[in-house]
Amino acid sequence: SFPSQVVYNRVGKCGSRTVVILLRLLAEKHQFNLVSSDIHNKTRLTKHEQVDLMKNISKIPQPFLYTRHVHFLNFTRFRIEEPVYINIIRDP
């Protein structure tokens, strides 16, 4: 079965804008919620910001894929169900 909670924590300059375009098409075809953050310039979060973001992510109706330029969030550290993570990097 497919995961119902996915986080794509994007890395800059690795083609993530193109991937999000493809994800939009897939979300429509396979009927999952694609939620993209409008925050692009804050990748390192305080502990409080991390918890707030994780709580907000966990409230998204499933199945979902959440995407944002943000460092890894350790959901289990705060006893929040861990989603599946995906990412893309490139070799210079």
From TrEMBL:
Membrane topology recorded in Swiss-Prot or TrEMBL: Single-pass type II membrane protein
Keyword Membrane among record annotations: yes
The keyword Glycoprotein is assigned to this record: yes
Stored Pfam families: Sulfotransfer_2
Main location: Golgi
Record keywords, A-Z: Glycoprotein, Golgi apparatus, Membrane, Signal-anchor, Transferase, Transmembrane, Transmembrane helix
SUPFAM superfamilies, sorted: P-loop containing nucleoside triphosphate hydrolases (SSF52540)
Superkingdom of origin: Eukaryota
GO MF: sulfotransferase activity
Gene Ontology terms: cellular component: Golgi membrane
Cell compartment(s), UniProt: Golgi apparatus membrane
InterPro entries in UniProt: Heparan_SO4_2-O-STrfase, P-loop_NTPase, Sulfotransferase
Similarity remark: Belongs to the sulfotransferase 3 family.
Name this protein carries in UniProt: Uronyl-2-sulfotransferase
Gene name as annotated: UST
